Amino acid sequence: MSSLLLGGFLVLIGAILFIIGFVATRRSKTAQSWPTASGTVLNSDVQVHVDYDSDHGSSTTYEPVVTYQYSIMGQNYTATRIAFGANRFGRKKAYEIASKYPAGSQVIVHYNPDKVSDATLEVVARGGTTFIIVGIIGAVIGLVVAVFTPVG
Asked: Which residue segment(s) compose the domain that 17 sits in?
């Protein structure tokens, strides 16, 4: 792979990560001003995801999944977003998050007043800052590789 191609690829990946982090952070900040409603957790679990690469290696991530119901002006809504940003974690972190929301518990739901079916339990962007930082670093490394590596 040429240095220009590798550099361009790193810049692209860096830009994508930056955008993901920026959007998650921005959405979480917007959600901080959303109105709230009382809700009830219907189900709380952790889903296991196993991904395989081309060398038959695998990686396992864990996703806390919380289903909750809330009511706005007599209309019931069901949602699953816990927070903006990353939703897959190591085993310990995923179970820690899911355990905060046991089935039957009462929760405060932040909902979008312009689209009340859009809701979240937490107004944070999990991993948002990390995505932004890694994105910037990746893009800078890509630029350095593309610009300063001699063409052979």
From this structure: 1-32+124-152
- Shared domain check, 77 and 96: yes
| Residues 60 and 109 reside in one and the same domain | yes
Residue 66: which of 53, 58, 78 has the closest Cα?
78
The pLDDT tens digits of the residues spanning 31-67 come to 889 999 999 999 999 999 998 888 878 889 999 999 9
Q: Are residues 116 and 135 in the same domain?
A: no
Q: Where are the beta strands (DSSP E) in 34-129?
A: 36-52, 58-72, 75-79, 84-85, 106-112, 115-120, 125-126
CA distances (Å), origin 83, targets 12, 66, 93, 97, 147? 26, 11, 14, 10, 38
Do 128 and 152 belong to one domain?
Answer: yes
